[in-house]
Structure formats: structure tokens, C-alpha cells
Amino acid sequence: MSENPVRLKILFERYICNELSPAEQLEFWELVKGLDEKDLIDEELKQLWERERGTKASDRVNWARVEEKLQKQILASEIDYSRFVPRPVRWWKYAAAAVVIGVMVLVGKQLITNKTGQPTVVAKTDIAAPNKSRAVITLADGQTVYVDQVKAGEKLVVNGGLEVIKNTDGSVVYQVKDAEALLKDGIIPYHIFSNPKGSVATAVRLVDGSVIWLNAGSSVKYPMAYVAGRKREVELLAGEAFFDVRHDAKSPLVLKAGNELIEDLGTSFNVNAYSKEQIKTTLVDGALRVNATDIQPGEQYENGRISKPELEGVTAWKNGQFVFQATSVEDIMKQAAVWYDIEVVQDAPIRERFTFSVDRNKPVSALLKAMELSGGVHFEIKGRTVHVAP
User: Fold this and answer.
1) Distances (CA, A) of 116 to 65, 111, 253, 368, 388
2) In sequence order, what DSSP letters do the residues of 6-61 get, joined into one string?
């Protein structure tokens, strides 16, 4: 491939994020120029792509669009590339393809087939990804406790037999010595754990050992303790959460999310309730019952229908990634809106669907650039508003 493949990978990742300095652009194009035709037909690289994405590279990558984008980058640049005289046009096809297959697969940023659109540009302004938790606990009496205002290892809440501690990893841990002592008229009071827009995913460990991870723009309501033999009733008020439930047949966990009633049968699962009309419950492991319908690992329940989505994409947010499989611009930008805490304005319908992955710790331009390189969509950033157009 290239004499310096590691450096090429690094530079290509910075190219995708629109972060190359003038000197790095010269270095990048010199390395690209050194690619040769055998890279395109290298069966090992094709097999690697297919193992990573489960699709044939030749069917998914829009080489013509990649070629066009690379050419436009050079033509639009103020840098003198005259000393990098390209070989015949045929070279561009192979070089562009080699860059994507030989580099994009390895850095996890795939360019996917879409209809060729008009030239697109990401504005120079940018919006950084969140880098800390802004989670809030609302107590039974209405008081609020901000997680980021307490140091790791310190107590957020002390209430009789209840202690809520901030863990070293930023998660929140509930500890109860005497649940009976917390009863109010025979009922255990509830707490609400909220993770606002523009906040990193945050976890809360309940007294039974169950763990709930909250995505940005999400909130969950739960009893601050449990009494043996009673149901553990939890409600996802908004957004998206991943549940790793400690099963107890005598005290089953019942989750309410909109109009859905989810019963744990010993499980870990993801619930996306950003849209109350399209709640998606996906079982990762164990057993689950949704609205009296049993679903199996790998299945997703939505409005009475059961499907089998790519689990990697469903739980990617929990692992610090955006992973999209044939996803519409609207659905992608819904996730971007809560993660980056931005407004999204779409000026016209866009039919293209996108399949790619991006590190969620990158600024919003990295996400937009990944789609722009595939073609058919244009973005403009104004303040904290992203305008979307064909």
C-alpha cells in the first residue's frame, strides 16, 4: 500500500474531520499519490471490509463520489499541488478506492453508497462533543443534586438508611441499610435521574445491583430502595437507556416507557423512547416481555412488530460511538441534536440513507463530514444550529 501506512491512516482520519493543516495536506496527498492499483484488488482488504461491515465493499462504496470529492478538495485548495502531478484519471479511481478500503476500514470511518449530490461544504465553525456528565438527581422532596458538583468517592445523598455515592468512574451508586425505614405510608419514595442534552452517558447502580446507563437527553424514575417481595417499578420518562437488570423472580422489575410495559425475565436491554410514538426495545441478552409479547436476544420490539437490528448500532452510544446502518438523515440528526445539544433545521426532504461510524468524542463536523463525503446532503453550521439541505 503506502510506505508509511500508519501515518496515512492518521492523516486520512484528520482529512475526514477537516482538520488537516496546510503542511499535513501536502504530506497527505504525497502519500495518496504513492498508492498503486493493486491496493484496489487486494482480496485481503476486501475481506477485511466484509468482515467489519458484513457487506461487499464494491456494492457499498460510492467510488465515483469519493473520486469527485478528492478532486474538488485539490481544486478548491489554496495550496500549490502542481508538484504532485497525478497520473491519468484512471489513477484517481484506484487511489480513492485504495484510500477508503485500505484506510477507512482500519480507522472505522466507512464511506457508503448514496446518490451523487451537489458539492457540499461544512462551515468553518464547529461544535465540540460533551466531555463531562451534567446528570442531576431529583429527590422525593423536589430537591436537586448535581453529580458534577461532588468529587469521586463523596456522598451525594444521605437520608436515614440511604446513601448515594459518586463512583470513581462518574457513575452513581445507591446503598441502603434499612429499606423499611425509608417507607412513607407504606410506599418507597422515588428519585428521578436525569442526563440532559450535551452530557456524556452516565450510569446509576440501584440498590439491587441493577445498572441503568442514560444517554444524553434522558431521564428515569425509580424507587430509591426495594422491599423484598414487591415489584421493582421503574419508568423511563424520556430519551434512551440501557438496562442491565439483576433478576429476582420474587421481586420482578417492571419498566414503563410511554405506552409500553416491559417485564424483566433476567436480562440486559436497550430502550429508545426519544419518540413516544416509536419506542424501540431491543433485547441484548436474557429474556424480556414487552406488552405481553416475549422477545428473544437480538430482537427489537416496536409498535407490536419484531425485527432484528444490528446490535452494534443500537448500543453504540453506550460505547462512545455513532454507528448507523442504512439510517435516514432525520434519525441521524435526532441523535446529533441530543448529543451535541444543537438545533437542527432541515430545509427539504432527503431520500438518501447512510451507513457509517464515527467516534462520538469528535466535534459535530466529523459526523457531518462523514455524510457529506457520501453525497446527497449539505450542512451549514450557524451558532448552535445545523441547517440540512440536499
Assistant:
1) 6, 13, 49, 16, 16
2) HHHHHHHHHHHTT---HHHHHHHHHHHHT--GGGTT-HHHHHHHHHHHSS-HHHH-
> Which one-letter amino acid corresponds to residue 77?
S
Torsion, Cα 244 130 196 216, to 10 degrees, reads -40
- Which residue segments constitute the domains of the chain, with CATH numbers given? 5-107 (no CATH), 136-309 (2.60.120.1440), 320-389 (3.55.50.30)
Cα 237 from Cα 111, distance rounded (Å): 36
Q: Tell me how crowded residue 320 is: count the other CB atoms within 10 A of its CB.
A: 12
Report the C-alpha gap between 173 and 349 in whole angstroms: 45
pLDDT digit string, tens, across residues 46-84: 443 344 344 444 444 444 454 455 555 544 443 333 333
Q: Tell me how far CA of residue 322 lies from CA of 190, 270, 319, 333, in angstroms.
A: 32, 15, 9, 11
Q: Kindly state the helix (H) or strand (E) to which residue 247 belongs, with its residue range.
A: none
Q: List, in sequence order, every residue forming a beta bridge with 163; answer none if it has no partner.
A: 158, 175
Grid coordinates belonging to 117: 449530490
SS3 category, 377: coil
pLDDT in tens, 208-261: 999 999 999 999 999 988 877 888 999 999 999 999 999 888 888 999 999 999
Q: What is the pTM of this model?
A: 0.70
DSSP H or E run through 59: helix 57-60
C-alpha cell at 352: 438518501
| Contact yes or no for 388/378 (Cβ under 8 A) | yes
What's the CA gap between 342 and 339, in Å, rounded?
Answer: 8
pLDDT digits (tens, 9 = 90+) for 276-294: 889 999 999 999 999 999 9
Tell me if 203 sits within 8 A of 235, measured CB to CB: no
Can you name the residues that pair with 144 across neighbouring β-strands? Answer: 138
Question: What whole-number distance in Å separates Cα of residue 364 and Cα of residue 130?
Answer: 10
**Portion of the chain with pLDDT greater than 90, in percent:** 45
